[in-house]
Design goal:
The structure is a homotetramer of 309-residue chains. Chain A is of the alpha/beta class and 309 residues long. A six-stranded parallel beta sheet of chain A has the order 3-2-1-4-5-6, with helices on both faces. In chain A, strands 7-8-9 form a three-stranded mixed beta sheet. In chain A, helix 2 links the parallel strand 2 and strand 3. Chain A is globular. Chains in contact: A-B, A-C, A-D, B-C, B-D, C-D. At the A-B interface, strand 9, helix 7, helix 8, helix 9 and helix 11 of A face strand 9, helix 7, helix 8, helix 9 and helix 11 of B.
Chain lengths: 309, 309, 309, 309
């Protein structure tokens, strides 16, 4: 399969999907995009992408990326009555599935594709739309090594970091571990930020140090505006975080792994939801922590960098 | 105070102190170094540093950095019978204290210096000797803003990141918060790394993804060799981590801040010590976690980058 | 239904079932007993019980108690090919189910019995064989109030304490809550017993006070021999406790209830299992706690009362 | 020392002290009582107690009980300018100290008394005023065995349960362990009571079962009115519980014992205080738990027994 002639299909132009497809198109790759709402895909034409009217139009592509929301959506676009495989003719060699679906969904999809001779590369990501735009996304992939090798050049055009972790649905469990860590890290940051503030350190000064210290991460930096200026516009809801914490704890049960920090964080996220604070971003863990500490938070109204340029 | 004529004194050439002083000397700064064991300081002469025989030789410097081990050492080198202030004549304008001393020690030092008209800048750091060498150290500073402004040009020659967080000993509490976070992050990494491994993902592959994800940090990268290849040579002992967790929990009591993740992590570190696993680096939290999960760890013997070049 | 003429059937003569049926028979109740291994039931004849050869012999009873092990056993003895309902003729009015089965199993049994016009009383218990013998058992019941009223006189002959908590499978969730509490209480007792011992208080003296204090319970008293003399013969395995903790945490998820103490205790029990200490009673939580505290436990070899006479 | 001629002194007639002294006086013991506010002691005269005007009047007693509030009060009544020892003549053989004072205070008192040849029996209690009245108090004692033997007949007239745990201040650490357990048990009861209620079980029915189960205790029974009918009149404040949890955690640090359940409970109690819910009894942990679970509690207004008659 020479790179020059490889045709890529793309399903799903949500906030993440758009930015990913845009990077791919800008790189000069031959990419054909389908989205339920066609108009949302059209701006990609300026970068050279072709816009498809039907999912079956992508069946002749070599590799098809799928970036939709839920497992139901994935099944619909792949195997539904008007889905990718509904045409009956040629099928892609590889499907790269980047949505946040469960291990069970991923395994079902793998079986379903295998019956048509298609390899599945499970390829969830770390990052949000802004991270993609900043060129800082990372992929974690699992499935046949051949599928990974075929997809790698295109993954690399979308994200600078691509890790292959093994066969089957292993990438899903890695993504779940990643999100469990994200929950724990956020709660710990909430604990120490409130402690520092009560001791007299402004949040922006505290987080400036943390972000520039050896402990700082892309994540800690892009959450800083939320922690400093109480901007809680949703990037990830408390309920979605709870779902991922529960998936992590379920996996921990299956593999006999005690995870005390994950368990406690899960209960704190549940408390956030129980207290009715689940209308905004999960970064409101800071507010819950402040209340538990007898502290009324106020926005510091200091311009802070999210580190994403 | 014109930069050209500013004279810097340096007390303490341990693993960290040497690298810090080396960076300062290489920058062309006029720096005079004293160390208990003179021979350890002598290699700095090649970078232009002068080597002092007596602490009193530094009394005529404008700014004196102090990087020793404990509060007892600090008191000895500053106010002991042969200490910095024992000569009775000219004294520095500012002392920059970078050791890991307590809030109480820091406050006592401040009072002691104030009586001689000297300003104290508390300036603990985030990083180890290798981080300094890689040019990635960060300072967090507190004390008089005038002292900070005077020291800033020299701090900046040692480390790319310098944050001023306010008056008094606030930098100490920030450093404690930093170390509490370090403990929580390490335990959470241990939990998810063991889960991923039991699910079938090699540790090096898992951590490669985490390190390159939005959650990755300089810290997670430089702890990767320990987690992958079970290299537990000491960088920070379990007992020192426990001490800092306890300082954090003490501060949390003082300021009425519940810190469940810090509390649980503290108990896990105590368990590591209670089980007799405190002879090596605190990264052995991974081993404790593996045992609790019925997993016998083996070194993967895969070359991994610590991210420090 | 006059008490005098009421006929009771009894299925299951395990360690618990035997003691329960014995109390009922001794009270002069007309009770017919079936057990897979007939010989284990025969000693009950001395108390006036009749021994049945076939489960169908119990179909003409008014109320049938079922005390077997698992949901599979329950289904077999009630609805299996040679089960209670296999005869096709008269059926009991009420089945009282005392085994530790899940909410789902209980609901399935209820439906299965309802189709034959039989009411189900879910009636799990608190206590072990020795507790029954000491006349200290307690029942928690749910199902139709009519079924409860019919069974109450006979429940009261087995146990001094009978609580009705409502319709359906509510008694199951109460039993799960009870066992979650049992896990938390045991872990907390392990923590404080080890602390007291390390401070210099013998375990038997410490527990003597606790047992006689306002915090003492029948449970804390009958676990005292295990804690003092390290007698860890199984009464309840770590894996069974983990199962009940997980059922509790699952219910907590369903009802949006954070349970930090249950979560942490669950992870400690998992650690006990992961460390391979699940061969004996769950009271080995004391050993795990001692190890975590750097303490080598020894039996005190002091005669202690288990409070059960 | 023949029982018939033994004279007992009593210092402190607060809520607890009054009930304790009343039991002693009613038993026919020769007891002389002093209280800062004399009128509060006078009702004891009806039971045969003598009322003293001055603390020095008790110096000629053989054994003096001390039941005041704080260590400052203890020091004042024993060694203050008008205290028990201020007369200079005869002194008691034994002081029995029942207040909730720290290990350090207890040790200081021991030294202070030893210098006058007086033995100290540390004798904190489990129970409140109503428990004493119901004849259900328990003592835990430490100090010289001779002092214990001398005091035992009188301790036994006050409380049915008396445990000797060893030399020195060991009884203090046992009392702290007891109170740590009380905190953990209350939080666990709050967790499962809210879970049971959300599943459909009224609190009074749930606690009726728990109280009568093997897990039930005098404590769980006398807290039931608070949990069922939301009667949160203070018996023990959140801040006092936090203090005792902290004393327990401090002891755990000293003796290298990790106590995860105690740590988490401590943080929950801190949250109760941080949320401003520390105006009433610590049983408001139930309210905090309900809020975290999205449940608005209402009093069930069901008459429930507190088990104390």
């Amino acid at each position: 399969m020479g790179n020059d002639s490889v045709k890529i299909g793309w399903i799903g132009i949500g906030r993440m999907g758009f930015e990913m497809a845009a990077r791919l198109a800008k790189s000069g790759t031959d990419v054909t995009v389908w989205n339920r709402t066609r108009t949302k895909a059209e701006p990609l034409a300026q970068y050279g992408a072709k816009i498809a009217d039907h999912l079956t139009d992508l069946a002749s592509c070599d590799i098809v990326f799928c970036v939709v929301s839920t497992w139901d959506d994935v099944r619909e676009v792949v195997a539904g009555p008007a889905g990718l495989l509904s045409g009956g003719g040629k099928v892609p060699r590889v499907v790269v599935e980047c949505s946040s679906i469960s291990l069970e969904g991923s395994a079902e999809l793998r079986g379903l594709l295998a019956r048509r001779g298609i390899e599945l590369l499970a390829a969830p990501v770390s990052g949000n739309a802004k991270v993609i735009k900043a060129g800082r996304l990372s992929f974690v992939c699992s499935g046949p090594k051949t599928a990974f090798d075929a997809a790698l050049p295109y993954l690399g055009k979308i994200a600078p970091a691509v890790t292959y972790v093994g066969e089957g649905e292993l990438a899903r469990i890695v993504k779940i571990c990643h999100n469990v860590f994200l929950g724990v890290v956020t709660q710990s940051l909430a604990e120490i930020t409130v402690l520092a503030q009560k001791a007299g350190v402004p949040r922006h000064a505290f987080l400036d140090f943390m972000n520039r210290s050896v402990m700082g991460s892309t994540f800690s930096r892009y959450k800083t505006p939320a922690f400093v200026n109480l901007d809680f516009r949703v990037t990830f809801t408390p309920k979605l975080l709870r779902k991922d914490m529960d998936l992590g704890l379920d996996a921990a049960r299956r593999y006999d792994v005690p995870m005390p920090l994950a368990s406690i964080t899960r209960d704190v996220v549940q408390t956030l939801i129980g207290r009715g604070m689940d209308d905004e971003d999960f970064a409101k863990l800071l507010v819950l922590q402040a209340e538990a500490s007898g502290l009324a938070l106020e926005a510091e109204n200091v311009p802070v960098d999210d580190g994403l340029g």
